[in-house]
Amino acid sequence: MNKVLVIEDEQSLLEIIQFNLELEGYSVSTINNGREALTMKNRLDNYDLVILDVMLPEVSGLDICRAYREVSNVPIIFISAKGNTIDRIAGLKLGANDYLPKPFDLEEFILRCSVLVQPNKKQIHIPSEIKIGNYRILPASFEVESMLTGAKQELSKREMELIQLFFSRKDEVVSRDEILNTLWTNDQFPTGRTIDNYILSFRKLFEEDPKNPQFFHSIRGVGYKFTLPD
Question: What is this structure's pTM?
Answer without folding.
Answer: 0.57
